[in-house]
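Complex record, two chains
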Amino acid sequence: MITGTSYLGTEKTTFGHKKDRGSYEQELIHEIIDSSLLAHLSFQTGGEPFVIPMTFVRVGSKLYFHGSPKSRIAEVLRSGGPVCAAFTLLDGLVLARSAMHHSMNYRSVLVFGATQEVTDELEKRMSLQALVEHVIPGRSEDIRETTDAEIAATFVASLTIEEASAKVRAGGPKDAPSDRELKSWAGVVPLQLQAGCPIQDNPGKHGTPLPSYIEKYKLSPARRET
Amino acid sequence: MITGTSYLGTEKTTFGHKKDRGSYEQELIHEIIDSSLLAHLSFQTGGEPFVIPMTFVRVGSKLYFHGSPKSRIAEVLRSGGPVCAAFTLLDGLVLARSAMHHSMNYRSVLVFGATQEVTDELEKRMSLQALVEHVIPGRSEDIRETTDAEIAATFVASLTIEEASAKVRAGGPKDAPSDRELKSWAGVVPLQLQAGCPIQDNPGKHGTPLPSYIEKYKLSPARRET
């Protein structure tokens, strides 16, 4: 169901298989991206495919990635060649009555485009603060300000979301009618990324109490409830 | 520390940045792969990068991927072009006293190579059963046998692990010495994929009790404890 703005379908984002799971809806695409902690960024280097997990943040219609200016990834992202970024949330294991109908519940997004280096100092600073807030909301007010030298020593690339699609599988197994009467247990084992007990660094020396924004940090299927 | 067999470092698997996090150790590489539920498979299509999350299983030195013979991915994997598969386990958020030293704890593997279609019926059957067992050990004995027609209707590709490397970050934040006295809370928020309460499909009709292999299915940082 399309309720709002959609991204345009293109040759690359056309769903070949299981079309009913696909969507170009902007709201859904942004929600899946924002619920992810990592992107898998795929690109070409020396004419061959390469994929790397990266932290990122979305601000409006832009994705920001950062790294050391000396890293291989900075070199690639600076070149502005085509990239494909995948965002994948694994929501559950789907257990059917036959091996063939076993599946997984997931929400995923692919974004296609070309990255470009962010050179504007204010935009770099904003994106780095947004990145910290994306990973753990409330954190940026609890740490010292980033210095100009640190901003200068950081490589930031942006990728504008224009060509993007989402794919979602939810619900129980879809067994063949002839298998429905079999006695195998069938259903869904939900999966979610969850936060464990925080481990303080060097607590004897400082003993800073656990801030409430960390205490309430919870990862749910929608990643966090704040 | 290298304790056993290692994969050979090549141009593609040489660590450019943060070399101390890298390893070619076979045992570590296999452990990370086996602890993953999804691979992000990167390849080229129409000369541009593409990445797709896929279920998989490792059997010895081979990775197996499967899909519908009509899917776009089957077409690509059949072609035998170069691929790069990423396996990523997110273990925690690392909170430092400055934005720049924030990080994540993770275990990741990259495998480079070329896929080939599996046509041998026995190998296809073995790989599909291994896939079910990889995702949820004990499951394959609880479901009906896969028919020859189902095997024939499934596309399976293999990728031999020859060129591979692992990268691991563990432990607390690495702040600059001058930041160590700051009062910000610093440390690690551990993350793990966890299984929730299983939801039975159509329970009124059958009411099959929850099998023990599902009951004990737990996902820990090492994915599962059985």
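Note: The radius of gyration of chain B is 21 Å.
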